[in-house]
Amino acid sequence: MKTTRAATVVLALAMATLLFPSGGEACNSVPVMGTDEACHKACPTLYQLCRATLSHAAPTAEATVFAIVAGKYAKLSYEATMDAIDRLLPSLPAGDARAAHGRCRDRYYEARSHMSGVINGLAVCDLACVRQKYVDATAAVAACGDGLSAFRSSSRVFAMNAGDRDKTRLASDLGALVVGK
Known about the structure:
By secondary structure, this protein is mainly alpha-helical. The chain has a single domain (2-179), classed as Invertase/pectin methylesterase inhibitor family protein (Butyryl-CoA Dehydrogenase, subunit A, domain 3, Up-down Bundle), CATH 1.20.140.40. It has helices at 2-19, 35-42, 47-53, 63-88, 96-123, 130-148, 156-179, and strands at 32-34, 60-62. A two-stranded antiparallel ribbon has the order 1-2. The relative contact order is 0.16. Mean pLDDT is 88; it is low at 6-25.
């Protein structure tokens, strides 16, 4: 299962690089830079995560490429968390924990939809709603974590959500290189 998921991540990131070759002029007025510069400019506090996320992107590319790669990485992570919730829900007794995990899954569906909108908008340089979609994806992932906070010691999903918050922030910060803050 982990090997399949890793292969999916590598394939998705490679596809983003193929769709937006290094140095392309896909969107007007978007800077071309290296991954190191993009990570330093966009998200110095998440530098290591940024470098790992962009490791399969072209070493120099339009910032749009990096934003798309990070968005796809976040979306894949959301899907892994949703899978974990789906596997966990049947084993939870009826009550608060089960309800909180169900609401969390619903927020992840929202986050995935918003991040898909980000990726699609960036891919065609339709940037009008991209910033708001980042905000909405961030809010949906945060709402899940807030709803699970009472179960943080017993829910492995809570830990996954913390990682997803970082991936969402990274995607949003790299996207800000394209659409602004």
